[in-house]
Recover the amino acids of this structure.
């Protein structure tokens, strides 16, 4: 389901914007939180998933914009289906980042523990994404982006996004992990920055035991995000119980 975008979504008024390759982006930051929610509500008929693109001082200081001034990989949506998510996260699992052994990986060790079980979905993922995105717009500075995809997880692969390039150049694998999290936790992409992703989570783990396995997945996906957290995986997992907003970075 992909649709060419002519400048106006049916039934919606959008701020001024333009195409930057496969990404349509508003020229100025979004000031009306409801517009993000409206774009999500229209997704099934437009095939355009909205993402919030945060203001990034690293580029603004030089008069640059990473959307235009940094390269992209080749689009890779056609490769997502072939990715084995469990094998990929196992391959990305790094047992050598802990100082003096594997203590930061407790209760696990040098081997990836496998995928967490699916959580029971109690909230509509798109409604959760709309609410989270609207809150973010009220609190921060974001432009509104639109990408033609079949599902939100495919945005990085569709754009050839390079935000994770310090860890991997397999953008199809990144989208495959996001698809898996969509399916198991109702985790939906809402923010796409130069080297960061944020997800709204409709079905987060409700207990510590499944949360610690989810924590292992997070660490494999973005070691840099985990490295910024205090304690070991068990302690990090405690912060994921009932948490409806996941953030990852590769800076």
């Amino acid at each position: 389901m992909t649709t060419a975008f002519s400048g106006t979504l049916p039934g919606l008024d959008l701020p001024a914007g333009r195409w930057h390759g496969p990404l349509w982006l508003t020229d100025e930051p979004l000031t009306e939180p409801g517009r993000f929610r409206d774009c999500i509500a229209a997704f099934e008929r437009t095939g355009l998933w909205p993402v919030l693109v945060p203001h990034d001082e690293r580029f603004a200081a030089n008069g640059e914009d990473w959307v235009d001034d940094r390269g992209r990989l080749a689009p890779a949506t056609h490769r997502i289906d072939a990715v084995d998510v469990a094998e990929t996260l196992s391959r990305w699992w790094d047992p050598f980042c802990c100082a003096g052994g594997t203590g930061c990986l407790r209760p696990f060790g040098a081997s990836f523990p496998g995928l967490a079980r699916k959580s029971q979905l109690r909230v509509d993922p798109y409604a959760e994404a709309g609410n989270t995105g609207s809150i973010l717009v009220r609190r921060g500075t974001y432009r509104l982006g639109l990408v033609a995809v079949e599902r939100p997880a495919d945005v990085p692969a569709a754009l050839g996004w390079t935000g994770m390039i310090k860890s991997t150049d397999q953008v199809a694998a990144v989208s495959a992990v996001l698809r898996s999290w969509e399916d198991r936790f109702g985790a939906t992409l809402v923010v796409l920055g130069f080297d960061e992703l944020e997800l709204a989570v409709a079905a987060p783990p409700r207990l510590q035991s499944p949360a610690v396995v989810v924590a292992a997945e997070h660490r494999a996906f973005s070691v840099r995000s985990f490295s910024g957290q205090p304690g070991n995986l068990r302690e990090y997992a405690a912060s994921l119980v009932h948490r409806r907003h996941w953030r990852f970075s590769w800076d």
In short: The first strand starts at residue 17 and ends at 20. The chain has a mean pLDDT of 90.
